[in-house]
Design goal:
InterPro entries: CrtA-like (IPR049574)
Order of helices and strands: EHEEHHEEHEEHHE
Strand order of the largest sheet: 1-3-2-6-7-5-8-4
CATH class: Alpha Beta
Protein name: Monooxygenase
Helix content: 25-40%
Distance between the termini: 36 Å
GO molecular function: monooxygenase activity
Number of domains: 1
Shape: globular
Keywords: Monooxygenase, Oxidoreductase
Radius of gyration: 17 Å
Number of helices: 6
Oligomer: single chain
């Protein structure tokens, strides 16, 4: 898919421990139903974690997400009324939707390029970075050992507004979501921070990934409870319009 979508949405729901069986059932049943929602080009249901280790202990069993690529904003407006949207709303204690416009995308997800080939462009407000990878089983241990220094550096990075881990499965299929005050802060961490730069340099030689994707988006809007995203900065740091405490 080379066409750049006008809108990508990230829905994130916070649930309670008591509804864990229902959430797990939704994760099993709604994967195909999400892709069948009218106007959906590409959709993934995701578990989440703190992003500090990517192992089983990192999983957050009270937060779940859906990343969806839409044919149009009008199609996206129907998500809440869809069977998938209604089902998650029934078990969620809180939720938030992040509206995104692709800026850059490199790599593949499930053999596809879901965000097309965005041309980039100048952005002065918040941006979201998405990384996603499928680990080679024989290289997983060395990858997990390399994660903590990078995760610790990310937590303290200037300009970071929110960050958490995402995954399609408990092990081996994972990524990160991070929201930054502006593109300069993201670039400063990605390419100039020693720990992250060292991890980038190791990647080709280590052969950690069987498939990988990195994408950057303009944050167009944040609607709902941003605490669900582990928001770590005040609104005066440069949040998107519509963000609510």
């Amino acid at each position: 898919m080379n066409t750049v979508p006008e809108l990508v949405t990230l829905h994130v729901w916070r649930t309670s421990r008591s509804t864990l069986p229902r959430a797990l059932a939704r994760m099993a049943l709604d994967r195909r139903r999400l892709r069948a929602v009218p106007g959906v080009r590409f959709g993934k249901l995701l578990g989440t974690g703190t992003g500090t280790g990517f192992g089983p202990d990192d999983a957050d069993l009270t937060r779940w997400a859906a990343l969806t690529v839409w044919d149009s904003p009008d199609a996206a407006a129907g998500f809440d009324a869809s069977p998938v949207g209604r089902a998650w709303a029934r078990i969620a204690r809180a939720g938030v939707r992040v509206d995104l416009r692709p800026l850059t995308s490199r790599g593949e997800w499930s053999g596809r390029r879901p965000f097309g080939e965005p041309p980039g462009g100048r952005v002065t407000g918040p941006v979201l970075a998405l990384t996603r990878a499928r680990l080679r089983p024989r290289r997983a241990i060395t990858f997990w050992r390399a994660v903590p220094p990078v995760a610790g550096a990310l937590h303290a990075a200037p300009g970071l507004l929110a960050r958490f881990g995402v995954g399609e499965a408990p092990l081996g299929w994972q990524g990160t979501v991070s929201v930054w005050r502006d593109p300069a802060d993201l670039v400063a961490f990605a390419y100039r921070h020693p720990e992250h730069r060292a991890a980038i340099m190791r990647t080709p030689g280590e052969g950690w990934y069987a498939e990988e994707l990195f994408a950057r988006f303009e944050v167009r809007d944040v609607v709902g409870d941003r605490a669900v995203l582990d928001w770590v900065a005040d609104g005066d740091a440069g949040t998107a319009k519509g963000a609510q405490a």
